[in-house]
Each structure stands twice: as structure tokens, then as C-alpha cells.
From TrEMBL:
Homodimer. It catalyses: shikimate + NADP(+) = 3-dehydroshikimate + NADPH + H(+). One of its GO terms (biological process) is amino acid biosynthetic process. Pathway: Metabolic intermediate biosynthesis; chorismate biosynthesis; chorismate from D-erythrose 4-phosphate and phosphoenolpyruvate: step 4/7. GO terms for cellular component: cytosol. Residues 14-101 form the Shikimate dehydrogenase substrate binding N-terminal domain. The active site is at residue 78. It comes from Raineyella fluvialis. It holds the Pfam family Shikimate_dh_N. The gene is aroE. This is Shikimate dehydrogenase (NADP(+)). The lineage of its organism: Bacteria, Bacillati, Actinomycetota, Actinomycetes, Propionibacteriales. NADP(+) binds at residues 90, 138-142, 231, 254.
Length: 293
């Protein structure tokens, strides 16, 4: 064998819509050698393949046949994948959303690393920020994870805004059972909610490359005293983050969540704890390279 060449020890994939530009594959591939292994990670882009969430079952079958260790799952498949799995981790069950599937011992088990990804990023990158009263935009897979992560951190009042009333109500009910019904509510008046909130989090796909343009939070509703966070990192400077900086808000881009959830997913896939600092450095290198492209 050629010197320096390592066998592929893990084959991974990312399933989602319009995700070919995702940093998740290269972050995992860069983390592999640093942890004594080789990793091949491939995007499985529904838009490129001209398939949809209804084809998830077939994608899972072929991933297992081809020897994948597991798959990351992103929008719009984080909830629709659940009925196709053999089991869920405790966190994924509580969240009702899966972003990591591991194939092991003949079973496909769903996990969720988004919740701790956002919570860890928030604690690390917005130190000292108040979070008693928080507004959350979106109740899909990412919204569920963010809601869980923030309530787990100690949010006292979480107001959820969601265009799909049934999905919003389901998230509020699920989180209410876990953390207490007094701590989470479905919002009806965004201006009123933001007027007293410590911060707002975008967990929708607004502003994401290949998805809805613009921001789901009108700039005129932002206040300098509040912080603004986005789960989107492609682009890193979303319209929401840009408008928040113009107002003078503290901001949290989706980059930290991308790194922290990837680090936890790496651990789930491989059983090895990666160096989060190195993964942040890898992310920064990817951002720099994209800026030069």
C-alpha cells in the first residue's frame, strides 16, 4: 500500500434538498485523518437526483446495501424519515425529528444532534446573553431541535411562530409535556412577542441558498438590545443576520450550529470524540475557500 494512504473506514452521506454546497461532507472528511481514520462522505441531493422525501425508503435501503455507516438527514426529511427507521434515541423520540441515522447490527437507528449543536453554539458564541424570553421562527425539524436545546438551557418563555398551524401546535404540545406548558406557547403577534424578547432564532429555511429568499423577521421589529440567531449557514451572512447587525444586535450565525452538530454526529457515527476546535478551524477554512471561489 502507498505510504500515507489509509483505508476508508466510514462511508457517510447527507440526504436533503439542495444540499450539494453543504460544508458537512468536507468537515467530516477533514476530521477523519485527525482521528486516525479515513472517511468518504457524499451528498445525496434530492434536487440533483430529481427525487423527493417519498423516495427516502429506497435511499435508506441502498445506503445499507452499499455499506454506509450512516446518513445525516436534513430538510425536508427530518421528520418523514422517522417511520422508516428501526428505532430512535431518547432525544430523537422527544424531539420528533432525526438528523443522524446510524446503520449498526442490522438496524437503522435515528439520532438528533441538532439540539445540542445549537445549544452548545449558543453557549460558546453568545456568552452572557440573556435567554429568559425567546422567539423561535419555525417548528420543523430544526425548530424542534432548537426549541428542545433552548428549553434545556433554561428558557422560561419560548414563543413559536410557524406557518403550518398543526405543526406549530404539535411542537408546543410536545415541548410543553417535556418542560412544562407554561414555558412554551404558539405565537400570534410577532411584533408584540419581539418587543419584549431577549432574542429571536430563525429555524426556517428563509435566507438559505436554494430556498426562500429574504428574512422571516422584518428588520423594523429588531431592537439593538436583543440578540439574533440563525440556523442557516449557507450563506453565513443571511438577510436576517445582515439586518440585525445594521440595527446593532448581537448575532449568532448558523456556522456554530453546523460545526457543533457535525462534531456530535461524528461521535455517533464513529464512536470517537472529535476535537471541536479543529472542526471550527475546518469550517473557517471552508468559508474562506468559498469566498475565494
Amino acid at each position: 500500500m502507498f505510504e500515507g494512504v489509509k483505508p476508508v473506514t466510514h462511508m457517510l452521506g447527507l440526504v436533503g434538498d439542495s444540499i450539494s454546497a453543504s460544508f458537512t461532507p468536507p468537515m467530516h472528511e477533514m476530521a477523519g485523518p485527525a482521528n486516525g481514520m479515513s472517511i468518504a462522505y457524499r451528498p445525496i441531493d434530492l434536487a440533483v437526483l430529481d427525487v423527493g422525501p417519498e423516495d427516502l425508503a429506497e435511499i435508506l435501503v441502498w445506503a445499507r446495501r452499499l455499506g454506509f455507516t450512516g446518513l445525516n438527514i436534513t430538510a425536508p426529511c427530518k421528520q418523514s424519515v422517522i417511520p422508516l427507521l428501526d428505532g430512535l434515541s431518547e432525544r430523537a423520540t422527544a424531539l420528533g425529528a432525526v438528523n443522524t441515522v446510524v446503520f449498526r447490527d442490522g438496524q437503522a437507528i435515528g439520532h438528533n444532534t441538532d439540539w445540542c449543536g445549537f445549544a452548545h453554539s449558543f453557549s460558546r458564541n453568545l456568552p452572557g446573553a440573556a435567554y429568559a424570553d425567546v422567539v423561535l421562527m419555525g417548528a420543523g425539524g430544526a425548530g424542534s431541535a432548537v426549541a428542545y436545546g433552548m428549553l434545556d438551557l433554561g428558557v422560561e418563555k419560548l414563543t413559536v411562530f410557524e406557518v403550518d398551524p398543526e405543526r406549530g401546535a404539535a411542537l408546543v404540545e410536545r415541548m410543553g409535556k417535556l418542560f412544562g406548558p407554561q414555558k412554551v406557547q404558539l405565537g400570534t403577534d410577532l411584533a408584540a412577542a419581539l418587543a419584549s424578547a431577549d432574542g429571536v432564532i430563525n429555524a426556517t429555511t428563509y435566507g438559505m441558498t436554494g430556498h426562500q429568499e429574504g428574512s422571516c423577521v422584518p428588520a423594523e421589529l429588531l431592537r439593538p438590545a436583543m440578540w439574533v440567531a440563525d440556523c442557516v449557514y449557507l450563506p453565513l451572512e443571511t438577510p436576517l443576520i445582515a439586518s440585525a447587525r445594521e440595527v446593532g444586535c448581537r448575532t449568532l450565525t448558523g456556522g456554530g450550529m453546523a460545526v457543533e452538530q457535525a462534531a456530535e454526529a461524528f461521535r455517533v457515527f464513529t464512536g470517537v470524540e472529535p476535537d471541536a476546535e479543529r472542526m471550527y478551524e475546518a469550517f473557517d477554512r471552508l468559508v474562506e475557500a468559498k469566498g475565494k471561489a
